[in-house]
Amino acid sequence: MTLTLMASGCTDDREHILKVYNWADYIDEELLDEFEVWYEEQTGEHVEIIYQTFDINETMLSKIELGHEDYDVVCPSDYIIERMLRNDLLRPIERNFGDTPDYIGNISPYIVEKFNQIEGHGKNANDYSVGYMWGTVGIIYNPEFVPAEEVRSWEVLRNPEYKGKILMKDAFRDIYTSLIVGLNSEKLNSGEKTLHELSLDTSEESIALVEDFLTSFKENVAGWEADFGKEQMTKGLAWMNLSWSGDAQWAIDEAAEVGMELRYDIPSEGSAVWFDGWVIPKYAVNVKAASYFINYMCMQENALRNMDMTGYVSAVGGQTVLENMEDPESYDAVDASYFFGEEADSVHVNYIMYPDKSTITRCAMMHDTDTETLLKMWSRVKGANASAWTYILIVLVLGGLICLVIIKYTRKSHRRRRHSYKRR
Hints:
Helix content: 40-55%
Shape: globular
Number of helices: 19
CATH topology of the largest domain: D-Maltodextrin-Binding Protein, domain 2
Distance between the termini: 28 Å
Number of strands: 14
Largest sheet: 9 strands, mixed
CATH class of the largest domain: Alpha Beta
Radius of gyration: 22 Å
CATH architecture of the largest domain: 3-Layer(aba) Sandwich
CATH superfamily of the largest domain: Periplasmic binding protein-like II
């Protein structure tokens, strides 16, 4: 039976326990029980899963790096995989599964190529990590107020007609990477810079370029958000939200329920792409079961179930996934050959999940580069972008909090805290 909390007596039989540490709401949890049965069928050995969740990369990392927690499988983001490789916190993933097929081979060639770009400090990230989910950074927008052709450029953010109508994701690495690519599109086109070079560029000149661009439309920004942006879009309280593709799909579906149309696009100059992947930490105990678990998650049918449950896009490709994703009645044709192979150069799939090849080839992955300097820049930008709309938002939030405190005191009641749902 799958457990979600660590019981004090579980360590007595640790060799038959698999500790999985993952993002909240990021898996079809029925697969956990099914894995226990499958693992015994494949190996003849019993295993019991202890499943725990985290909501911030750094929380997970600190438990392993400082606390030496013995998690067997965890699911960090791209830049954290880099950090864990640099700090020698990962074990190689053993792919000798005996008579069991190696389903890790189902991972899309695009994902493998991108993981090759992870700065492994002398190690190939594909030997230490396996892609799980991925997505892009772009703009959710309301076509009633913002023309589609305008969203095809990052310049849309600077249009004074959208004063107080833009929400920005409070994610410095995502936005910096997106803009350093977008603002250098001419150098990218001429061949002066490559996408990989731009993704690693945190020079003073480049940071200043991004900072100047961000502060140039400070009057347009209504607020910086970690999670509420997509919901604000569905209520018509903002016209644009610089956000993640996963949030975009959620917002579009929710808006459709109330008769509102929202769309998502990636500016043509370029943007960022993100990845989460399975790894086996240095202090893992049940390494064999961990490797089998990662292999199990790469089965195409399991990838489809995880996508259906979470709404995110699996790193697993293959014909079975493509056939399930195709829907000629709902989607225009896109070139998804980069993900599914040459035969998928014109397939009817959701462009939010699988952007056209011409778009994705201009999206750079994020790296664990110069975090301190980027955070300082981010703090300056957010301070400078405290427009009147931001102060109004702050006042409303504070007013609401004061009212809640008064109600709580007078009624002597307790309220459950609502947990935010985030991409990463």
